[in-house]
Amino acid sequence: MTIRKATNADSLTLAQLASQMWDASPAELAPEFSELTQSAEAACFLAFDGDTPVGFAQCQLRHDYVEGCDTSPVGFLEGVYVQPEHQHKGIARQLIAACEDWARSVGCTEFGSDCEIDNTESLAFHLAIGFDEVNRTIWFHKKL
Q: Which domains, and CATH codes, for the chain?
């Protein structure tokens, strides 16, 4: 398994992987990944099995308040995905380690993440790789 930082040329590959996790098409996501791969405020990493991309992680700097953190900016895991047939092999852990290394390299001393309150699989994964749960929140919205 090879992990490497994604470049602008990888935008469509990132979008194709991300579309399997997020409710958007690769065509919708590719321009966003193009911007992210060129930004000093973000980094994306790809995992390859040989020449085949099998997973990705996206992290960014957050300058606003990040729950449980005392510093700013904070490196923040925006998303991680590994194709089902490659899961449970430590790939997501390696991708997140690459994100953490990137965050350290740009001066961060804290790294955050989140998951939906009912996503027990993500919660268990985060706890297993060293994250501490710091809060649970349900947000509300009302149109006026």
A: 2-128 (3.40.630.30)
